[in-house]
Model the fold of this input.
Amino acid sequence: MAIHFIDSDKIDITFTNLIINVSSLNKYGLSVNDFSVENNLWGKTNGKLLVMTEMNEPAWELQKIIDTILIPKGFVFERDFVVAFEQLIHGAGNSITCLINQELPELLEIDWISSEIKMNGNFIWLKN
Done:
């Protein structure tokens, strides 16, 4: 498996996503590289967020990572990691979602991450 580096503050997301705050990894003495190699993980990072995506729903592989890796290491849902879902932009009959230019609903109350649904995709970034 591999982690790809994204040279951008904003990361585009698709499907179902497990998003880990990299500062939480560091707090536990882990680097993105060591953590991903040790646990055979995949995804992308900008050095601030680590994002793993699964196309299946329910996202059993992401849930397995949460249950067998993150929680046993002491990570806390919403403090250290979240799960976010891509919001489809185009719907039936060529309609456009009413969520354009808004945040992903499940991330509204998360204080360390921002998001936006644009015509060209769903984007997340670490709040300053």
Remarks:
- The longest strand covers residues 16-21.
- Residues 22 and 79 are 12 Å apart (CA to CA).
- Strands lie at 3-5, 11-13, 16-21, 43-45, 49-54, 81-85, 113-118, 121-126.
- The helical segments are 22-27, 32-38, 60-70.
